[in-house]
Write a structure and sequence with these properties.
Oligomer: single chain
Structural class: mainly beta
Largest sheet: 22 strands, antiparallel, barrel
Number of helices: 6
Low-confidence stretches: 1-55, 658-670
Shape: globular
Strand content: over 45%
Length: 670
């Protein structure tokens, strides 16, 4: 109850600032921007291209951790006011498929290159959001927190540890500014959806700080049509209203950065997330009263400094605690209250050795624990790993060979994750890259030790394993960036639940699968006021389990084709945008019955924004999602929202500075 009241309090605070909006909007072009103190900052391109320098990138940036990887970086600041959640930002990336279970606030997870959602690692500023071998829920990370998204596709075990079968996503939160900036945003739209946030940033204690509060709610009660007798031809459709789709939540983000006399920097982070949402269940087993109440507290600290001209060191510590309560529903399958705790440290050193080698070594250790109120069940384990990477440069740095190896102990499992990457700069903007690696996913605590209603644990489970390869060609200039390539992976010892007499289910290592496909990403910025991006992924999957009912069939919830095109045109005072997503049909069972598949979908979204006043910057945005009102369902068969419209008002206020106030870092009133 207290979490729901606190969420309402955050929402009330947010909505008490009508018209406030995105911090980070640029000042008017006619007024010079005040200078920032010399703290390391960097800006990343939307699509990473080999050969582009990323100045002052921290050691945990995805380009530093995997110099030859298949990487996409999405700048959320370019999408301000458009996306409703983090999953919407990720949905346009190649080979990423969002598994959505409803509207605002409902569970959203990622499938990357055919790997299941529990085989994709997700981090919030380096803090892991996956449970022990579990799934990261993107609905719990509001877009208001996000500055950019760093996506690594392919084997991520060597760089990020166990769990990265299909890839890893690092959500980088908004950075504080030394300039005094206050901002906010409020959105209202379909299904009685209200969202908003307020933020303030400025100089504090010889550093810079950011405080952000956010909140939102949605009733989610949209209408849809259903055929109650699908076996009959020409049966009339009946109109129904989707219920059990409401959600509400709020939270806060506090960040602090301070430069050190040694040339290094200290970063501190505290994040709170609260959410209460209805759980609809499945079409076959709908829930009439079940709800999920979840709270997350995340703490992080990072220190880094250079050593000499060629070395650097960093240390990071993190802590996360999740409280999740499942209330109501069928007594026989209640999960009850669950608590998950993880904390750890990571030490990393980098140095250039000679004229060709750049060595990096990472030591990491963490502890994880989960408790389940049902039956007073509990489990915990330690994780420890050592990772070494060498970035070998040859032929005047036109050729790079990057071998790496992570040795990891996760509870009772010993895991070995090697990876070899290589890149070749062909000149004139052309290049190629290739990677091969192995990753693992240790079973989750729930799969190993904890019974949940009719789901039994199995302590004899083995880790899942993925062997992955990919290669791509690249070309870029000042206005264009193109990446095209292919990938393949073999997944072994996949864990799946099977019936266990009399009416229970138990997980076993019996599944195996093959995945292969092709990817294309293109970005064009021919004018400062014109941006176009497109991505396409063709993905084939094949079940390799020996059961003849499944052997050779495609995996469920893996569409073969996905294409996204996006266009934004116009200056700040008036610009328009459109996005089109085409996604082919996808199966919903392993038998491969096409009559039970989810149909293909075409989603068209349009919008417009206008920053019609400066100092303060006032912006109004209008968006229509799913313009053609395409009706689809989630992976459980529940209908997803149709056409929706949203209007957003935002404001960013940055006081003017006089020459004397700039010297003293004290802002004068506007």
């Amino acid at each position: 109850m207290w979490r729901s009241l606190l969420a309402r309090a955050f929402l009330g605070l947010v909505l008490s600032f009508p018209g406030l909006a995105h911090a980070g909007q640029e000042p008017a072009a006619s007024e010079p921007a005040p200078e920032e103190p010399a703290l390391p900052e960097f800006i990343l391109p939307t699509v990473d291209v080999i050969g582009k320098a990323i100045p002052d990138a921290p050691p945990d940036a995805v380009q530093r951790r995997d110099p030859t990887g298949a990487i996409t970086v999405i700048d959320a600041r370019e999408r301000a006011g458009e996306a409703r959640d983090t999953a919407e930002l990720l949905g346009g990336s190649a080979s990423l498929v969002v598994q959505d279970s409803g509207g605002y606030g409902q569970s959203k997870s990622l499938v990357v290159r055919g790997a299941s959602s529990n085989g994709v690692l997700v981090f919030l500023d380096g803090i892991p959001l996956n449970g022990a071998g579990g799934i990261a829920d993107l609905s719990l990370v509001p877009v208001a927190l996000v500055e950019r998204l760093e996506i690594l596709r392919g084997a991520a075990g060597a760089r990020y540890g166990a769990g990265g079968l299909g890839g890893a996503v690092n959500i980088v939160t908004r950075a504080p500014s030394s300039r005094l900036v206050s901002s906010g945003e409020v959105t209202y739209g379909s299904f009685d959806t209200v969202m908003g946030h307020v933020a303030a940033s400025g100089a504090l204690l010889d550093g810079r700080a950011l405080v952000l509060l956010h909140g939102g709610r949605s009733q989610g009660d949209f209408s849809f049509r259903v055929d109650e007798l699908p076996a009959l031809d020409d049966n009339p459709l009946t109109q129904e209203v989707r219920t059990r789709n409401d959600a509400r939540g709020g939270g806060a983000l506090v960040k602090y950065q301070r430069g050190l006399d040694s040339g290094g920097r200290v970063d501190l982070l505290a994040e709170l997330s609260l959410e209460d949402r209805a759980l609809a269940g499945t079409v076959q087993n709908p829930q009439l009263s079940r709800r999920q109440d979840q709270t997350r507290v995340s703490l992080g600290a990072r220190w880094g400094r250079p050593f000499g001209d060629t070395g650097e060191a960093s240390a990071r510590g993190f802590f996360r605690r999740d409280w999740m309560d499942i209330l109501g529903g069928s007594t026989g399958v209640d999960a009850g209250a669950q608590r998950y705790t993880v904390g750890g440290v990571e030490l990393e050193g980098r140095a250039v050795v000679g004229s060709r080698n750049a060595l990096a070594v990472t030591l990491a250790a963490s502890s994880e624990a989960v408790t389940q109120a049902t039956g007073a069940q509990a489990a915990s384990w330690w994780r420890a790993s050592v990772m070494a990477m060498d970035e070998l440069s040859l032929f005047s740095e036109r050729v790079k060979v990057v071998p790496s190896l992570r040795v990891e102990r996760v509870g009772q499992y010993s895991l070995l994750s090697p990876k070899l990457g290589a890149s070749l700069d062909l000149g004139r903007g052309f290049g190629v890259r290739a990677n091969a690696g192995q990753s693992h996913r240790a079973p989750s605590f729930l799969e190993l030790y904890i019974r949940q209603g009719l789901l039994l644990p199995n302590p004899e489970l083995k880790p899942e394993r993925a062997l992955s390869v990919d290669a791509a060609g690249l070309w870029h200039d000042d206005a264009w960036s193109i990446t095209a390539g292919g990938f393949a992976a073999v997944y072994e010892n996949l864990i799946a639940y099977e019936m266990y007499p009399p009416m229970l289910a138990k997980p076993y290592n019996f599944a195996a699968a093959r995945v292969w496909g092709a990817e294309l990403e293109v970005e064009a910025r021919p004018r400062t006021w014109l941006t176009a991006t497109t991505s396409y992924a063709w993905t084939r999957t094949q079940n390799r389990y020996g059961d003849p009912r499944y052997f050779g069939k495609e995996l469920p919830y893996r569409p073969r084709h996905k294409w996204v095109g996006r266009l934004r045109a116009g200056p700040d005072w008036l610009n328009g945008r459109t996005e089109v997503l085409l996604q082919s049909a996808q199966l919903i069972n392993r038998v491969g019955e096409t009559r039970l598949s989810l149909p293909s979908r075409t989603w068209v979204s349009v919008g417009a924004s206008s920053t019609f006043l400066h100092r303060p910057d006032l912006t109004v945005s209008f968006d229509i999602k799913n313009l053609l009102d395409a009706r689809t369902a989630d992976y459980t068969g529940m209908p997803l929202p149709g056409r929706a419209a949203y209007v957003t008002f935002s404001m960013a206020l940055e006081p003017l500075r006089t020459a004397s106030s700039e010297d003293s870092h004290v802002a004068s009133p506007p």
